[in-house]
Amino acid sequence: MIDKRKVIYFTAPGVVGLEEMPLAHPAPGELLVQTLLSGISAGTEMLIYRGQFPENLVVDTTIQDLAGEFSYPLSYGYCLVGRVVEIGAQVDPVWLGRSVFAFHPHASAFLAKAEALVPIPMGIQPQDAVFFPNMETAVNLVMDGRPLLGEEVVVFGQGVVGLLTTALLGWFPLRRLVTLDPYPLRREWSLQLGAHASLDPEALQGNLWAEVDLPAGADLVYELSGVPETLDSAILAAGFAGRVVVGSWYGKKRASLDLGGYFHRSRLRLISSQVSTLAPELSGRWTKQRRYQVAWEMIRRLHPSRLTTQLFPFDRAAEAYQLLDKRPEQTIQVLLEYDGGPKMEDR
Predict the structure, then answer these.
(1) Whole-angstrom distance, CA of residue 292 vs CA of residue 136
(2) Which of 6, 50, 62, 282 has its CA at a distance of 20 to 30 angstroms from the CA of residue 273?
(3) Are 103 and 63 in contact (CB under 8 A)?
(4) Distance of alpha carbon 177 from alpha carbon 290, whole angstroms
């Protein structure tokens, strides 16, 4: 019987704490989920950790568990895997014992309606399932970029989303796939996942096209670094009438762009890509559920758990955030492990 739970709260820039609170039995129509693993987002969560989120902005308009505005104290997170351990009246008994994914803040247990939970398909392990939202984001990025046969593609940023996007692009018959990231660990993984070349953007000199061996510029460029200044480099990497997909969320960091020269004459297209919605031109055939199915299939093929670099007990979450903040070059995906969850060695 679970009658208490612990929840992570961001209370000020650089401050993370655990709060214990009572937990009721499921009401009619509710399920009680015990958490096994949750993943820390090195993008959005670190903006919250550092106090770089915009004020008076709704956290998420499509997920009930992330309602409310960005302000301290804030419980946040959206990569959680658990097991249904108790059900209320009017809930189909088939849910009891089922492994589920939830877009839910970091917590040791929680109550939810069935429609807020995503059943994990048979054969997919919790260690892989926790990557579901990042994989869905990568699928969405590829769909929004629409790579074509023989195209030349550049990806800036090889964090978790960048690497998963690179892996999906690597299965396309592209002419060339080039990635850029300042951290050697991520560049090594980028090559393993299908990039033809992976470069340190800080070491580039002179003409970017020459450096990445794309003399006419790239057909398609992704900006996934989370660094606003990188968007100028992404624009310069694109060829005439090229597409630049912006998947980064900068929070309240401003992007100062040079749009007076090359961009003005090159007919470039800047495309905003965000996973909460589907591109309108796809909505006649595609639904979130269809995209979910694709994301699960990509997880089944890729086994993204190999991108896990560190695993911290839930009670040591503050150390995990400090690591991501101070030594990001050592990390790709950092997970939190809960009592009763699968045991994994630090990677």
Answers:
(1) 7
(2) 50
(3) yes
(4) 27
| Host H or E run for residue 31 | strand 30-40
Contact 228, 250 (CB under 8 A): yes
- Separation between Cα atoms, residue 331 and residue 92, nearest integer Å: 40
Dihedrals φ, ψ of 110, to 5°?
A: -165, 160
pLDDT score for 169 = 98
d(CA 44, CA 236): 26
* Burial per residue of 253-289, b for 16 or more beta-carbon CB atoms within 10 angstroms, e otherwise: eeeeeeeeeebeebebebbebebeebeeeeeeeeeee
Is the domain of 152 the same as that of 259?
A: yes
Residues 6+ apart with CB under 8 A from 94: none
| Predicted local confidence at residue 291, as pLDDT | 96
- The confidence score (pLDDT) of residue 260 equals 82
Look up residue 141 and give its two tokens. Answer: 């990025």
CB 103 within 8 Å of CB 29: no
In a domain, 55, yes or no: yes
In the block, which residue shows the tokens 């991501």?
Answer: 324
Q: What is the distance in angstroms between the CA of the first residue and the CA of the last residue of the chain?
A: 33
Q: How far apart are CA 199 and CA 202, in angstroms?
A: 9
Tell me the whole-structure pTM to 2 decimals. 0.91
Q: Does one domain contain both 61 and 108?
A: yes
Both 272 and 317 in one domain: the answer is no
Question: Are 148 and 269 in a shared domain?
Answer: yes
Could you identify the residue written with the tokens 């709060």?
A: 19
Give the mean pLDDT per block of 10 residues along the chain (347 residues).
91 93 94 97 89 67 58 91 96 96 96 96 97 97 97 97 98 96 97 96 74 86 92 92 91 79 88 91 93 98 97 96 96 92 52
Domain that holds residue 233: 133-280
Look at residue 127 and tell me if it is in a domain.
no
Domain count, the chain: 2
What count of residues does the chain have?
347
Q: For residue 275, give both structure tokens.
A: 């996973």
Asked if 158 contacts 181 with a C-beta cutoff of 8 angstroms, the reply is yes
